[in-house]
Design brief:
Blueprint (H helix, E strand, L loop, with lengths): L4 E10 L28 E11 L4 E5 L6 H8 L7 E6 L2 E2 L4 H7 E4 L11 H11 L5 H10 L15 H13 L5 E5 L7 H16 L3 E6 L2 H7 L2 E6 L2 E6 L1 H6 L5 E7 L4 H8 L4 E6 L7 H8 L8 E6 L4 H12 L4 E7 L3 H9 L6
Parallel strand pairs: 3-8, 3-9, 6-7, 7-8
Antiparallel strand pairs: 1-2, 1-4, 4-5, 9-10, 11-13, 11-14, 12-13
């Protein structure tokens, strides 16, 4: 049975307060109002996520920390109960048929949760036993594929972080699940181990298995995923193939500029350069403050940075430098990015995926 993934309007609101921050920030205790019942804080982790992931697809969830990626995986793997909405694995309702769902899925959490009192081989065999599988042969094959055969009979407490991550993924594959969830699978891995992991993920997918992975590594999403959803603040902000998403960035190229200061005239001239499709202030990307300043004749601004979207990169630098020089404004720094998923996220949110 090949199984896909579906969600409809998933919402999750947490009502437990975050820990008190030292030295400022958010806090939920004070000397005022003692004895009064304080309202519970509401933290919206998911705000209406709807996904349709086909059977046999490698699907990526991209977003910064706190965007809702791990909560989405938690709901789909029966670990987090949604506040509202529905989720299915294949034709199974995740929260009405939890036992049947667990037989179909394999899960690798963001941090390894291995039993340090067992050897690597025992961890695989014990996991298989939960699903009625008693196969030394499969355990040996997985240890070999993940380059752990020579450590199979050693206790895992002495394993490196990368070895623990490889073993965690091997354990999730031990019962040959139809749907594999990988939460930040390559976080903290060295480049060689990351490439090995990508190769194994592709192989597993070739047998028709569905894979959902969360990541904030654009290279990983581009290399592995058939489609990607970029989420922030618990909402979908973009969905499509990596190529489609990169092509949707205005102009494709992003030039991040830092000036010693700027004026409305300079901003308008940047916007009028051939090939430039959009110009935005860095500190308020979503509001379009840069265009507003130019349109209203405002000769000052709080920031000194601008994002220029264009159909070319390097050839624009000399023209930008000439404009800045003509306006007696110093061009302090230029950074050029080719079309990428990172640029897409910057365009929609004004901040980096790693923020």
């Amino acid at each position: 049975m090949l199984a896909g993934i579906r969600t409809r309007d998933l919402r999750k609101i947490y009502t437990s307060p975050p820990p008190l921050a030292s030295g400022g920030g958010f806090g939920f205790s004070s000397g005022r109002g003692k004895g009064k019942k304080q309202p519970k804080p509401e933290i919206v982790a998911l705000d209406g996520i709807s996904l349709d992931i086909s059977a046999g697809e490698i699907f990526g969830l991209l977003g910064p920390n706190g965007a809702g990626k791990s909560t989405t995986v938690g709901v789909l793997t029966t670990r987090v109960r949604p506040t509202s909405g529905q989720a299915w694995i294949g034709e199974l309702d995740v929260w009405r048929e939890q036992v049947a769902v667990k037989l179909l899925i394999g899960v690798v959490q963001q941090r390894p949760n291995l039993d340090f009192s067992l050897t690597a081989r025992e961890i695989l065999l014990f996991h298989g036993a939960y699903f009625g599988i008693d196969s030394q042969e499969r355990a040996d094959a997985l240890l070999g594929r993940f380059k752990l055969r020579d450590r199979g009979d050693q206790m895992v407490r002495g394993f490196s972080g990368g070895m623990m991550q490889r073993l965690s993924i091997a354990r999730a594959m031990m019962h040959d699940p139809q749907v594999l969830f990988l939460d930040e699978p390559s976080a903290g891995l060295d480049p060689q181990t990351r490439l090995l992991l990508w190769e194994i993920i592709r192989e597993y997918n070739q047998s028709g298995k569905t894979i959902l992975l969360t990541t904030h590594n654009m290279e990983e999403a581009d290399a592995l995923c058939h489609r990607v959803a970029i989420i922030d603040h618990g909402r979908n902000i973009a969905l499509g193939t990596p190529s489609e998403l990169k092509a949707s960035v205005p102009g494709g190229y992003l030039l991040r500029l830092r000036f010693g200061g700027y004026s409305a005239e300079l901003l308008q001239r940047l916007k009028n350069l051939p090939g430039v499709t959009e110009v935005r202030t860095r500190n308020d990307s979503q509001s379009g403050a840069l265009q507003n300043a130019a349109a209203e004749g405002d000769n000052s601004s709080n920031g000194h940075s601008a994002d220029v979207y264009a159909d070319r990169g390097g050839p624009l630098i000399s023209e930008i430098a000439n404009l800045a020089s003509g306006a007696n404004i110093e061009l302090c720094d230029v950074h050029i990015s080719e079309p990428s998923l990172e640029n897409l996220f910057l365009h929609h949110t004004g901040r980096s995926l790693r923020d």
